Amino acid sequence: MLEIRNLSARVEGNDILRQLSLSIRPGEVHAIMGPNGAGKSTLGNVLAGRPGYEVTGGEVLFHGKDLLAMEIEERAREGVFLAFQYPVEIPGVSNMEFLKAAVDARRRHLGLGELSSFDFMKLARDAAKRVNLDQAFLKRGVNEGFSGGEKKRNEILQMMLLEPSLCILDETDSGLDIDALQVVAAGVNAMRDGQRSFIVVTHYQRLLDYIVPDHVHVLAAGRIARSGSKELALELEAKGYSWLEDEGV
Amino acid sequence: MSEQVESLIRKDYSAGFHTQIESDTLRPGLDEEVVRFISAKKEEPEWLLEWRLKAFRAWQEMEEPTWAHVSYPLVDFQALSYYSAPRSMANKPKSLDEVDPELLATYAKLGIPLHEQEALAGVAVDAVFDSVSVVTTYRAKLEEAGVIFCPISEAVHRFPELVKKYLGSVVPQKDNFYAALNSAVFSDGSFVYIPKEVRCPMELSTYFRINEVKTGQFERTLIVADEGSHVSYLEGCTAPMRDENQLHAAVVELVALDDAQIKYSTVQNWYPGDKEGKGGIYNFVTKRGLCHRNARISWTQVETGSAITWKYPSCILKGDNSVGEFYSVALTNNLQQADTGTKMIHIGKNTRSTIVAKGISAGRSQSAYRGLVRINAGAEGARNYTQCDSLLIGDRCGAHTFPYIESRNASAVIEHEATTSKVSDDQLFLCQQRGLDAEKAVSMIVNGFCREVFKELPMEFAVEAGKLLEVSLEGSVG
Ligand SMILES: Nc1ncnc2c1ncn2[C@@H]1O[C@H](COP(=O)(O)OP(=O)(O)O)[C@@H](O)[C@H]1O
Ligand SMILES: [Mg+2]
Question: Complex ipTM, two decimals?
Fold first, then answer.
């Protein structure tokens, strides 16, 4: 469903991704690990189309379509979802209003009608319960005054409502206590349906105890330095990343 | 800031059409003869002519103020015409059927149907076209409740005692340069009187339209809420797109007697000028309310139009326990300039005031908040809360705040908060990543920023105001 071929990208004049290739089939969970500054967030941002990230080579096919040719919002409506490492606040815009606008945009794109406010409210309340956020958060401004953990859970809430086909989670586990981590993992696991695919960027094995990946990749110096099964994550946890460099990758 | 945001904020002005209609327009220039002409045209009593002449003589001695954070070539007051009226209004129509259909069509096009059966239920409208009031709806229904809502030119004849007693009682003729000018040449506007203990049964509104070229509009509004009464009033304004600047210098006076409440809302959408700053309305307005004991005056304004806005709706909190409020959204785009804010003058004991001012600057515009909170020596226990937030869109615009606080009573509590923020690329990206297009995203972010003010508007108008902001920020259409 996602085919990344020799993708190179530049940020502020620096080459960050260097001919990165990665292939993801429907229903798979791919964990991406790697040292700070390796380009993990850059990969997510390039896929989502963030301004400032310049693609200098390669191609990306998403459900067979040229992803890189699409506008940001088009990618989103096609089903690409990026859970942010640092979610921003939008003061005064209620979470509910924001979510409804987002869901409506996606539904229109899919040729489904907009949901009535009543039906949407039911969905949103239900999703909030599942990520253990009080209903009051739906009325508050988007991420406005939310704690770090609440922001991350709000990302998962958005993901649940938008039902994307590719979910990119960028260090969603960072800064979460163990309870919140389990909530996030349970949310993700509940969305695994054999079709939906996930890219999970993390530094920690502990998330992968809950969200068990099909593949683990190490991203270093802008490319996939090593790929393996879930055991690779355990090995990385034990040895760090330096052994990869010692092996001269 | 990204180019993308810049491209989103180009403006499309939908009220910019001109109505082809024959008008009687006075020759340009201002002298005593013009003042006498206007007064005679309205068949005014002698006292009012004297009142105007006194204002005119004072004005001649005054200088155009230059302290505001705006810049423009000084107005040539001799090049303007001070009176213009549709010819069809020369013999005042007795009913709507007699009103020129072109005029009615103009208002319909602006979304203000004047036939009662089509109008917004529960809102009475006084429609002012250039220098005259065209029609006032729902008068019969209001009169049943004892509420007077009519053009001020008519009130002068029908309710001379009320007009004589209150005209200039809050904004004296010599108050400032523009107020003096208005007092000399004011043409029309609305008069409202709510009797004791009456809650006005509907929203009252006046819709101002400037149509004629090279004319000024000088309307005068006077609202008197007698003891224990309540009224909610709204004004809206638009003008055609023209290359020349046009002058609008209004005066609004509010009198809230003991225990009365007046809520005054404005949605100002005068033509702002084009992208290069050509044309647009100079909006130099004096608005002030006087609160007696336990009274409350609440100003809510959404200012999106005009090339230059110079406007400080104020409250004189004279009576003990009286309350003044000011909620404002001022949006400037392209080369618009706004210097707006309020004055809260605390005279009575335990008087309270709240100021929430939201400034949004886009393009190369400049917006300033200027607010005075004055606590007089006798204002024991007075309190003020001021919150002043600026939102910048792009990096070529400016936002400024000029708060003035003068307290002569140690028991007063004054709080002031100010913030400046930007529509960030990160916010925009978040919205787009969730599937919203960039225009929707910006208007949502801006609407969110204005939320505290919009919730003060009457319901029907809060929706309108939201849409207006959306249009003002629209790029793809323009
Ligand atoms: N918006 C940006 N502006 C400038 N440099 C950036 C930006 N985003 C990423 N970089 C740089 O790109 C490199 C990769 O960053 P990133 O993708 O965030 O790494 P990771 O997520 O793997 O820690 C780093 O050197 C970082 O400083
Ligand atoms: Mg990162």
Answer: 0.95
